[in-house]
Write a structure and sequence with these properties.
By secondary structure, the protein is an alpha/beta fold. Helices cover 52% and strands 11% of the residues. Strands 2-1-3-4-5-6 form a six-stranded parallel sheet, sandwiched between helices. Helix 3 links the parallel strand 3 and strand 4. The two termini are 33 Å apart. 31% of the residues are buried.
Length: 206
């Protein structure tokens, strides 16, 4: 596979993963790009996105790339959190390879070569154990609340979300608070990590 771009990695990180990336893509000459917005000028056949960075940064880059219709490969030898896995698995033209075996790498190569979506076994196992509380609250969230949530996950502030939805900034705050109370009806304070997880799961199921 020619014209492979890596984004969000340092030179050292790219070097240490060069062998596994070659096994997955068949390409040794991988170009490193720091800004996701620079990628399009190279017209890549595949983008290696570093998913071991802060969640919001990874999510913003992922949403941007997904809009440009690039095929995205996310590799990690760590266990990612449920929020990221749910977000990645909801997209098309994405391969999520997490803690793979040698056999799984061989299997994944075929999907990458054909640019088909792929989710590794470890990621599927984690998705299957998502807390029931997230699923239970979905039916109590309105379409407008989901739209606000989707825009929030793309990194928009409340003021910009209000403009997009033709409503007020105060209404956006109320909608996002309503999501919290729907998913966690018995808690006065919702831990941020739980709410982030909740947002990704709602987007995945929307």
């Amino acid at each position: 596979m020619k014209n492979v771009i890596a984004c969000g990695y340092s030179e050292a990180q790219l070097f240490t993963r060069s062998q596994i990336f070659f096994m997955l893509t068949g390409e040794r000459n991988i170009k490193l790009v720091n800004d996701v917005k620079e990628i399009e000028k190279f017209k890549p056949s595949l983008v290696l996105l570093n998913c071991e960075r802060p969640t919001m940064l990874v999510t913003e880059d992922f949403f941007y790339l997904n809009k440009t219709d690039n095929y995205i490969l996310l590799y990690t030898d760590r266990l990612l959190n449920e929020e990221l896995i749910a977000t990645f698995s909801s997209a098309s033209k994405t391969a999520l390879v997490m803690c793979p075996s040698i056999a799984e790498i061989e299997d994944c190569r075929k999907y990458i070569a054909e640019q088909k979506s792929y989710i590794s076994c470890k990621a599927k196992d984690i998705l299957s154990t998502l807390p029931a509380k997230l699923n239970t609250g979905l039916n109590r969230i309105t379409t407008l609340q989901r739209q606000a949530l989707f825009l929030k996950m793309q990194g928009l502030g409340n003021k910009k979300i209000a403009e997009e939805l033709s409503t007020t900034e105060g209404s956006v705050r109320v909608m996002l608070h309503r999501v919290r109370t729907c998913i966690f009806p018995c808690q006065r304070e919702v831990p941020k990590s739980d709410f982030d997880e909740c947002m990704a799961w709602i987007l995945h199921r929307a």
